[in-house]
């Protein structure tokens, strides 16, 4: 479960960075306060979703799970964001884009020789969801500060051709 959370935190950080593109197409993270803010927001969102899903079947349980997930996810995301710099995010985002079209099983790697951080994204399965959208499942291994974390997820192509991580 912790591995899913780490992937969600990092994916959320990447997605929030991608949303902050300026007119020249380059990421504009300065207005968000850097990696810590992006990590906090992404972690809080991912933690809230995970907490809600694990909070039980009652409204009280779901609310408590969501709140706990937001707080814990925000904290963990903040710490992860502090360790990942703009070069890491850019390299990981390029690898993510390549993974959307790479053959299933092909490992897409990225690395930052300046700080030693790296990652591997491997598409593991593709198909279509209930609404007919093309989706891909993937596994990811990320090494940050010499510590390796693994996770998995699922991304689906949107009607405009962009991709959205859905799991």
Topology:
Layout: H1 2-18, H2 35-54, H3 59-83, H4 86-99, E1 108-111, E2 118-128, E3 134-144, E4 147-157, E5 163-165
Antiparallel strand pairs: 1-2, 2-3, 3-4, 4-5
Helix pairs in contact: 1-2, 1-3, 1-4, 2-3
Low-pLDDT segments, ≥5 res: 1-33
Structure annotation, total helices? 4
Distance between the termini: 13 Å
- The share of residues in helices is 40-55%
What is the helix/strand order? HHHHEEEEE
* Main sheet strand line-up: 1-2-3-4-5
Q: Average pLDDT across residues? A: 73
Rg (CA only): 16 Å
What does this structure look like?
Strands 1-2-3-4-5 form a five-stranded antiparallel sheet. The protein has four helices and five strands. It has one domain. It is of the alpha+beta class. Mean pLDDT is 73; it is low at 1-33. It has helices at residues 2-18, 35-54, 59-83, 86-99; strands spanning 108-111, 118-128, 134-144, 147-157, 163-165.
């Amino acid at each position: 479960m912790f591995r899913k959370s780490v992937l969600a935190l990092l994916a959320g950080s990447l997605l929030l960075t991608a949303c902050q593109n300026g007119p020249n197409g380059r990421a504009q993270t300065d207005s968000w306060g850097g990696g810590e803010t992006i990590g906090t927001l992404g972690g809080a969102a991912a933690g809230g979703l995970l907490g809600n899903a694990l909070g039980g079947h009652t409204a009280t349980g779901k609310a408590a799970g969501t709140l706990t997930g937001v707080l814990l996810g925000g904290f963990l995301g903040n710490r992860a964001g502090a360790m990942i710099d703009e070069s890491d995010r850019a390299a990981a985002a390029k690898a993510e884009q390549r993974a959307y079209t790479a053959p299933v099983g092909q490992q897409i790697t990225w690395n930052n020789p300046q700080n030693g951080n790296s990652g591997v994204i491997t598409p593991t399965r593709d198909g279509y969801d209930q609404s007919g959208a093309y989706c891909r499942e993937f596994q990811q291994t990320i090494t940050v500060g010499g510590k390796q974390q693994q996770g998995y997820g699922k991304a689906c192509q949107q009607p405009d051709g962009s991709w959205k991580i859905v799991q």
